[in-house]
Amino acid sequence: MKRAKVVETDDINKNGEDEKHPNFLIPKLCSWMYDLKWATGTGGGMSVKHGDFIYMAPSGVQKEMIKPGEIFKCNASGEVLENPASLKLTECAPLFMNAYSIRNAGAVLHSHSKDAVLASLIFKGKEFRISHQEMLKGIKKGSSNEPHKYIDTLIVPIVENVLYEKDLTRRMKKAMELYPESNAVLVRRHGVYIWGKNWQQAKTQAECYHYLFKLAVKLKQLGIEPDQAPAGENGIA
């Protein structure tokens, strides 16, 4: 195996990259996730594909303080090509690769948000389900360009957590194969993986999924099943 190139973390703009390059995008997106409390305590992660290469955030660092020179560069198989000095590749790497290899994703993120964790707990089985909500329209059906409709039931598979993140790889792969229309996999008592055809779509869908997770929890608190069809609401029609 070819040895990965070690990159000094303060060599920020070594290749004259612009701000749309993943070396700059990933720190911004990780900071955005931190501000939303999706990546606190060094948890969570982000990866973006650019050309033939895949870029990933490091593990065990303050996600709101990542620098452009601290991003790992991998090939299409996930092999590290550029290794920032003194940093460790994210533990999410094999799970990110699931999204790239199975769904041909362009970006994928891992969130530790409380809303995702609670959503995984209010549904005891293998599925999170919610229907008749306008925000469903912001989520595509699998790898297609077809958005969910207001009347559709959005289903997100739930896998059980394990001691080590990398050991979730097989469970996530199985969930993705069983639910081809889902662009997310919930991990019970842990968080969620969400992907899209590019970073913009992954970000948009993540915002919509998290909105729906939080809403579903509130609906359950009010005694309303999140996937039930409207009945007896009697508004103007």
Automatic annotation (TrEMBL):
One CC-aspect GO term: cytoplasm
Family (UniProt): Belongs to the aldolase class II family. MtnB subfamily.
Cofactor note as given: Binds 1 zinc ion per subunit.
Phylogenetic placement of the source organism: Eukaryota, Metazoa, Chordata, Tunicata, Ascidiacea
Pathway linked to the protein: Amino-acid biosynthesis; L-methionine biosynthesis via salvage pathway; L-methionine from S-methyl-5-thio-alpha-D-ribose 1-phosphate: step 2/6
Binding site for substrate: C92
BP GO annotations: L-methionine salvage from methylthioadenosine
Functional description taken from the UniProt entry: Catalyzes the dehydration of methylthioribulose-1-phosphate (MTRu-1-P) into 2,3-diketo-5-methylthiopentyl-1-phosphate (DK-MTP-1-P). Functions in the methionine salvage pathway, which plays a key role in cancer, apoptosis, microbial proliferation and inflammation. May inhibit the CASP1-related inflammatory response (pyroptosis), the CASP9-dependent apoptotic pathway and the cytochrome c-dependent and APAF1-mediated cell death.
Name of the molecule in the record: Probable methylthioribulose-1-phosphate dehydratase
